[in-house]
C-alpha cells in the first residue's frame, strides 16, 4: 500500500472544486490546497475536505505555486489535480485498488488524461501525464506556464484516467500570452518548451505571422521534445492556412514525419488539403492510411481518437462520392457508423444513399 498527499493550486474554483474533491477525497490520505488569490467561495468549499489550506501570492509562475504545494505534502507520494479535473467511478475503484495493492517501488506514475470529448461524451483527445511522485525524490516543477515535471527514476504508466472538465467561468485567454511576453520584456530567454508554448499562445490569439516565426525557431533549434515538435508542425500548418500559404501548409505537415511515424491526425490533415484542392485520389490515399493506423496511446503522445477511424472514414465517403464511386462511398460511410452509430453525419449520409438507391 502507498500513502498519497493530493496537492492542488486553486483560484476562484467554486464552480468545480467540490466535484473534483468528491471524486478523490476518500482515496488520498492528505489534501493540500494552495490558494493563489480567490475572491469567491473556493476556500469555504476546500474547508469541507481539509484544514491544510495555504495562501500563496501569485507571481505569474505556475511551477512556483505547484512546488509550494508539494512542499506541504507529508505522505510518501505526492499527486496533483487541477480543480476542473475529476475521476469517474470506474476509475475511482481502479485507483483505490492500485493504491491499496501497490508497493512503493515507483518514483513517478503517469496516468491517462482525457481532455477532449464529443457531444455524446466520447473521449476524442487523451494522453498520459505525470501525476504521482515519490516525495523523497524531490521532483520539481519547471516552466512558468504549461508547467511540467521532467521524467525521471522508475516510471510506471497506469491505465486509469483523470477527466479534465470545463470550468463554468470564462478563462482569460490572454493570461498565458501575457506571462510569456512579460518574460521576454525582461530580456529573459524562453526554454525550448517555453518557445513552443509561446508560439502556441500566439496562434490561439490569432497572431499568425508572429506564431510562424516562433514555431520555426523552435523546430530549427532541434531541442524540443518529440511530441512538441509534432504538435508544432500541426499548428504551424494551420498558421500557414490562415495566411493563405497552401504550399508551406502542406510541407510543414510532411516535416512532422522527421520526428515519428505518420500519425492518423497528420494523415487526415494532409488528406484534407488535397480534398480542398479537389484532388480526391490523393485525399483518399491519406485518409485510407489514417484508417490503417492503430490507436495506441504512446508515452506522452497525444491521441486524437476520432482520427483513428471515424473522421477518415467519413472523408473517404465524401471523396469517393466526388469520384463517382458510390459503392465505395457507401462502404466508408458504413465504416464510419461502426465507430459512431449516432453520428448526425453518418445518419445523414445513410439516408442520402438510401434515397438515391431507390
UniProtKB/TrEMBL annotation:
SUPFAM superfamilies: HCP-like, Nucleotide-diphospho-sugar transferases. InterPro entries: Glyco_trans_2-like (IPR001173), Nucleotide-diphossugar_trans (IPR029044), TPR-like_helical_dom_sf (IPR011990). GO terms for molecular function: glycosyltransferase activity. It holds the Pfam family Glycos_transf_2. Keywords: Glycosyltransferase, Transferase. It comes from the Bacteria. The keyword Glycosyltransferase applies. Its EC number is 2.4.-.-. The keyword Transcription does not apply. Residues 5-143 form the Glycosyltransferase 2-like domain. Coiled coil: none annotated. This is Glycosyltransferase. It comes from Irregularibacter muris.
